[in-house]
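Lay summary. Proteins are chains of building blocks that fold into shapes, and those shapes determine what they do. In this project we predict the shape from the chain. Here is one chain we studied, written as its sequence of building blocks.
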Amino acid sequence: MRISRSIASKAIAWTTTVNPKNPAIAVQLLKCVQTTHFDSELPPAIRVCLRRASPSIQQPPAMTPCQIELLNLQIETPLSQVRALNHEDIRTFSEWLCDPEGFRLRPDQVRVKTWDPIFGYEILAQFFGENGFLVRTADRMRVGVKNARSAGDWEIIQQLFVRFLHQEANARPETIRNFSATAHIKVDEPYTASEFLQRFAVVPGIERPAALSYVKIADWEKDIRIVIEPSNMLPGQLFISWDSQFGANQDWDTFVPVLMTVMENSAAIFDLQIAPLR
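And here is the predicted shape, written in a compact code that computers can read:
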């Protein structure tokens, strides 16, 4: 692609601003621009400067195929009213946890911790071998599952989230719920995670490149905070976290399956192609 003098000037200015004590790369850039016409003829370090100065000359990178190896998800919702431990709603909720038409737990899976007789309590339910949890306090509830690996796990999680979200049928329309997820991601060969992350090393001195952005995708109202970084559990692979919000007025049976699509589409903005769970 042909290099314009305005783009070259921006690249030189950016280089000297980032590292004013070492202008050698700017001088090298100027010489290259004077003797070459296309960015493909430039040394790699110089092309980085040009791409940083003008995204219009950057060729779109190929999608990096990858697979979720381990997935954690959580939904948190504020309650419409604060409830004391001895309130009738708390008794009804506790019974719903073990109701075959409710959350379908066994009584031995539910515990309560108290540190104050009025609002200082926590009802904790654990299931799926302690990989699943539901917590209720005086003013909020959250449900989550960790260490999911397969399409079968995701099906169970969807059923769990739908039952949880249906539980508070009288939520206020303005209620905003929080959704968060994390995943350890394996990049398919011949691609590598380090090669993918290197695109985020846009200035000198970055030791371990990563990405943090707030993104928007179609058919999702709120911003999505997404972080992509090296995985500490799977050497040489990726770790991604998502955080977003959603409103109370939803058809939960059709809404919950969309959460996986939200994760996939937001990662695709960074050219990550997450394959469906197997």
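What the prediction tells us: Residues 5-57 form one domain.
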